[in-house]
Amino acid sequence: MESKAKRKRAKSRVKAQGSKVKAKVDAAKETGPKEFSIPIYNAKGKEVGSFSFNKKVFDGVVNKGVLYQAVRMYNANRRQGNASTKTRGDVSGGGKKPWRQKGTGRARAGSTRSPLWRHGGSVFGPHPRDYHYSVPKKVKRLALLSSINSKLNENKVIGMDAVKVDEPKTKMFRAILDALKLKGSSLFVVEAVDVNTLRASRNLGEVSIRNFMDINTMDVLNSDNLVMSKAALEKLPERFKD
Prior knowledge:
CATH topology of the largest domain: Ribosomal Protein L4, Chain: A
Oligomer: single chain
Largest sheet: 6 strands, mixed
CATH class of the largest domain: Alpha Beta
Strand order of the largest sheet: 2-1-3-6-4-5
Shape: elongated
CATH architecture of the largest domain: 3-Layer(aba) Sandwich
């Protein structure tokens, strides 16, 4: 039978996961409607221009309820769902009645694999299952918009004229990070992922590169900095069309 300590640990893990979801959502900074303009840098960290966001789309409004729904869904969909326990029918042995029904003075028993016995089966224990579920497309879209608005409110979004390196070398991409003075994890959003750039960045654990059509709410919330190429910035509103 499953021990109390084991059940307690499982309960604490579920509670911890819920706390992480709440922490991500609570960390999202919320302000009223406003206009945003971000600087555009080159690979050497020099400011070469600016970009103004469409105020009808990126207005700084953060819907925390929708964010919570999206983060909970993405976390659930990552679960393997392979936790398993054996019921009394699954445990080997126990086919013989331990002692006769009457006359021994002991409680009646039909199997040594009863959940009441040591080495017996588990009652109501977990079994492999699929935790996957989905939320409506409009909810996903609004959650992504809210996550980007949150980063804009925190001044954690910058632009680059082009996210590209000539050779697939880590030191070349590290030079870009140093030039932009980025600290913590960084999500680079581009119009099209360049092979050399992808290879140059994959040894850097704090860096992720995504196509603007592929980013989701978790990608944005899990990153400390959001760096977007100018081409991706211009096409990003396409993600929020009905």
